[in-house]
Amino acid sequence: MTLGYFCLVLHSHIPYTKKAGKWPFGEEWLYEAMAETYIPILDILAGLNESARVCVSISPVLMEQLRDPYMNEGFEEYLGQRLAAASADVSRFAATSDYRLKKLAEGYVDYYEKVKDAYIRVWNRDLLGAFKSLQDQGRIEVITSAATHAYLPLMGDEASVRLQLLVGRETYKAYMGREPAGIWLPECGYRPRGGKDPHGGTLRPGIEQHLKELGIHYFLVDSHAIEGGAPLGIYSSRLAHSFQHADAENSAHTGRSTFRPYYVEDSGVAVFGRDRRTGSQVWSSEWGYPGDGSYREFHKRDEKSGFRYWRVTNRLTGLDRKELYDPDQAMARVFEQSTHFVCLVRNLLSSFAASSKTPGILVAPYDIEFFGHWWHEGPQWLRQVLTKLAEIPEVEVSTPSAYLSKYPPTEAVRLRESSWGVGGKHYAWMNEATASLWQELFAAESRLACVIEQCRNSSAFDTRMARLINQGIRELMLMQSSDWPFLITTGQAADYARSRFAEHKDRLEKVLTAAEALAGGCCDQRVDELEEIEQIDSLFSGLELSSLVNWS
Question: CATH classification of 7-67+126-424, choosing from 1.10.340.30, 3.20.110.10, 3.30.2130.30, 3.40.50.1010?
């Protein structure tokens, strides 16, 4: 008898970094994720029991980068640099007779050799193809996201919302060879119907209406959007010092449970809610697993190589007092905490089953980059969780689509506006520090719409003009990335985020000015810069973007 279902959802996203810096901000964000997260996770997924299936979300902008020859060549260079640095550390520590550090450095050499071998020999230098292959084998379900991971609830023009979602669907189809069943709304950001756009337009539809039109069957929200209560968030610990406003609407309990999906009113689109307890076990800064003193410390690096040789020790311990990392001690904690997590899952499903005739589903969504990159032991923890769950016959590891086919929703709900950010709404992306970005973005949307209309009505419309319009749409979508306001809010890379936003805004202005000139029968010198811009911001080049959405 099936007690219930466990659904692991791993969301993968890296902002567009091609030719936009390397270190500390830029292309190496992707290379670190490939080496420390994607390849280890692919190894785990490929080795799963065939009865266990995991849901993986891949943002379209990440899909494009994983298939870009320039980025893949850069990744191999990066692996060579990491191997050289690790080998140099082995020699350096051997010369000082610091054998504990030497052994840890040897571990890095072994690690990167295995990653390089897997990338070249096992996955044939094609990680996106590897995810597709696992989906084709029935081992995972891959879902899509918004094109450049735009924060949809705050988009100014409804055409932008449609375009982000439509490009997300079309990019998925191009790479996965099928229609996406589900979607990860960036930052779990959801907006119901109602309210007017910043341009003073008509009442806006709920995001689910766009999903319905695109044939997408389900999406996910944070727990408080369904249950009510205080939002858990994933960024609360990082931003709590900045956010002090309670959300009375979201604090009221609804009496609904995240152990069942629901239809969103009048749409036929299903929504799943994140489980609160299992989310806290990973995300909580106070008692989440990754803060364990035995695990590798993320924030302390060797001054020469940049490798991490220390353990958390205690979350209150200063970086200058961190103790050396002990891999065996860390793996012992992985075993204990994976066992604890599996018992928690079983108990939560058992508790729901006691009051429901329908087996419930426990949805556990996480950023995939958290496992391996941020939490070094995370992939091994995931491996043990999935292995141990497979040994419990009454708990089935499944996907949203598989569950919906057996137990479709029986109730329709009106969802609250929400996200999984601090405070449960939009603060992490819209605040005093980021308000000017949004005003510039709204103005850019209006400007693009006007130029498109002007070009379409021009008798001089030609191939160059079409290329300029398509590039303008790319630049607008890159401006819309949720990463820029978030990095400004957190202060993690505020100057870099502002610079990236400004670069895309400048390129947008260049191509639009050139398009206007051509539409008026002139030729602007900026036309000559188009090819260079296309080579840098080359994502979605296989799509005729201007034809996808009505920008009137």
Answer: 3.20.110.10
